[in-house]
Design a protein that fits this description.
The chain is built from two helices and no strands. With 73 residues, the chain is mostly helical.
């Protein structure tokens, strides 16, 4: 599996985990300490996903610029 494919899989798994965490936290049935740990995990996953999306945007922008250069040559 390529590095890009790994990033997509990791992003997808992170998003799935974030949804699980959100559901658990929204249930209101967890002890406070578990809620705090899940919140911390969710914040980290959220930051990781944001970073992955930013990298993807930069990659798309790079390829768009490269394509534009080829068209203008």
């Amino acid at each position: 599996m390529s590095e890009e494919s790994n990033k997509v899989v990791n992003y997808e798994k992170s998003m799935e985990r974030l949804e699980e965490i959100a559901q658990k936290l929204e249930s209101g049935k967890l002890p406070l300490d578990e809620s705090i740990e899940l919140y911390k995990e969710g914040k980290k996953l959220s930051a990781d996903c944001k970073r992955a999306l930013e990298e993807a945007q930069l990659t798309v922008k790079y390829y768009e610029q490269e394509q534009e250069k080829k068209v203008n040559e």
